[in-house]
Design goal:
The chain is 42% helix and 16% strand. The protein is α/β, with parallel strands linked by helices and 493 residues long. The strands form two sheets. The chain has an eleven-stranded mixed beta sheet, with helices on both faces. A seven-stranded parallel beta sheet has the order 4-3-2-5-6-7-8, with helices on one face. Bound molecules: ligand NAX, adenosine-5'-diphosphate (ADP) and potassium ion (K). This is Bifunctional NAD(P)H-hydrate repair enzyme.
Amino acid sequence: MPALLTPIEMAEADRLTIAAGPSGQVLMARAGLAVADAVSRSAPLGGRVAVICGPGNNGGDGYVVARILRHRGYRLTVFADAPPDSRAADAAAAFAEWQGPIEPLSEWSDASAGIVVDALYGAGLSRDIGGAAAELIARLNASACRVVAVDIPSGIDGATGQPRGAAVKAHETVTFYRRKPGHLLLPGRLHCGTIRVADIGISDDVLQAIGPKTFVNEPALWRGLFPFPRIAAHKYDRGHAVVVSGGLTQTGAARLAARGALRAGAGLVTLASPPEALSVNAAHLTAIMLMRMDGVTGLSEILADQRRNAVCLGPALGLGEATRGLVAEALASGAATVLDADALTSFAGEADKLFAGIKAWAERPVVLTPHAGEFGRLFGPDQAGSKLEAARSAAARAGAVVVLKGPDTVVAAPDGRAAIAANAPPWLATAGSGDVLAGIVTGLLAARMPAFEAAAAGVWLHGEAGLAAGIGLIAEDLPEVLPGVLKALRAAE
Ligand SMILES: NC(=O)C1=CN([C@@H]2O[C@H](COP(=O)(O)OP(=O)(O)OC[C@H]3O[C@@H](n4cnc5c(N)ncnc54)[C@H](O)[C@@H]3O)[C@@H](O)[C@H]2O)[C@@H](O)CC1
Ligand SMILES: Nc1ncnc2c1ncn2[C@@H]1O[C@H](COP(=O)(O)OP(=O)(O)O)[C@@H](O)[C@H]1O
Ligand SMILES: [K+]
């Protein structure tokens, strides 16, 4: 299970492990060894290494690293302003075994070493960093030193990815057992550099007891429910997606979504077009079917055929009453519904009306795909907590799966499950890319994938498609590279 553990859950994993067998000192020894190995991989033997130790068990890991590296022949200096806190017994034991020099934090300079191990604070960060530690972090970040962070760069909150006061910028981070949300959420991810996850002997049995609800968005999370075509299936088994087009001069976005839906696996896709845009849509469509849709009645007629089991509204649909009417009709039809862009912004200030329409038929899947701006307009600009918590509480409030987009897209379900994406390349930030994503999710819903998994799989496929197309991609490329991505996904089954 690609679980992410919050600092509190990770402390519980440590506690359960220690209760069942190895001591905290043994876990710390393994953690320190993993970090020492990471340093050894990039530092020439005999080179200078500085280890900066804080007052808790993160600092304890640092003393272990220092001892191992000195034993291997590196020239070590430890920097710490105080011995370990009395509550960090394992760290105190590691400190007692360190028999080399200890300098105050204020003495650190980039002349001390080319490689710096950051063991100031890890999972126990509990307030903003100030004083000598903050000053040191500023000097460290301005230096040319290579920084290896123990567990998480000091100052990054493992639950939220937010810096607290000051935060180390690392080139490499070695964490233990499982990553935390703060390793994936921005800006935390940008502070981590390359992330290694070391096995320190924690058994997956602890996950049963902890019941984590946050995951990395990768295939292990949803592959079992992915609608790979079956040999005995016909196209209607693969579902029929409907995408609603905007008016005469706003048709491209819906066609991008429709093509995403078809490539993602819907057996059929129909573009529902306002009468005035029929000819322009007709000029651009081949495998995708076209139907005339005259307002709400028109959409109602199209969705009356229950085989049309998923519908996407929003891309370039226009703002206002007409769009609100179409959304209400889609939600009342019983088709799985994806709402994006204008379908979300049209409910700014009237969000509860939208949520009531969604909750009126709770078993019908609904996925909302806002970017940060649309999210703020719908759910209010001042969401408390991290992006993860914002998406989670929005999903509970709306009664829908929420895809809060960006470089660290979060997919959250009303039941509290959430997945954070780590595979999206920055060139996905291009006009129309979100329209394709809405279409991909619609295609997966048409193929009857459950909503949370369809949204997560859609986001992952979109990211992989971005990687496959590479820099320079335009939105049109995304559906066209999906077959290669799907082929690799299926081969890895
Ligand atoms: N036995 C275990 O539980 C294991 C823990 N491990 C390490 O232990 C770490 C967690 O240890 P701790 O829970 O002791 O926490 P930390 O060592 O991350 O920090 C806690 C200490 O820092 C102080 N502190 C927190 N925020 C501060 C701030 N902003 N300014 C000044 N002081 C601050 C606290 O008062 C406390 O003394 C992990 O990150 C990991 O590196 C690993 O050794 C694996 C095993
Ligand atoms: N910096 C970034 N790195 C990776 N992916 C990004 C980045 N910025 C945006 N994206 C992704 O690009 C897509 C943009 O969607 P959206 O903002 O709706 O654009 P549009 O309306 O032009 O289609 C989303 O899937 C989003 O997650
Ligand atoms: K650290």
